[in-house]
């Protein structure tokens, strides 16, 4: 067997192993020290050089239904308090305890 055919056989086996693994290509390539670009290169090369396609290239259709998008009022996700020359902006992700600490600190200063 020539080196070229041997390499093609090795890659055909790698591609089948990846597809059988059940994990995505990026993860499989990382686990097997193979670059994703090499993987896709060999899929194209093997598909172009033979009548038998490598991998599952069958097409299946699935029905997809979309629900109407709800309109949200976006206030920027924050509240701004202005008091006595100070400005405090509170984001929507801040915890209640953190707000209480900030307000207690402000009360003690003001």
Automatic annotation (TrEMBL):
Q: What is this protein called?
A: Transposase
């Amino acid at each position: 067997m020539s080196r070229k055919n041997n390499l093609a056989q090795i890659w055909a086996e790698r591609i089948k192993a990846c597809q059988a693994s059940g994990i995505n290509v990026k993860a499989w390539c990382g686990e097997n020290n193979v670059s994703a670009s090499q993987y896709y290169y060999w899929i194209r090369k093997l598909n172009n050089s033979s009548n038998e396609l490598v991998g599952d290239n069958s097409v299946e259709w699935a029905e997809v239904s979309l629900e109407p998008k709800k309109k949200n009022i976006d206030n920027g996700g924050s509240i701004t308090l202005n008091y006595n020359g100070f400005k405090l902006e509170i984001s929507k992700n801040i915890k209640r305890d953190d707000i209480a600490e900030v307000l207690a600190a402000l009360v003690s200063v003001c």
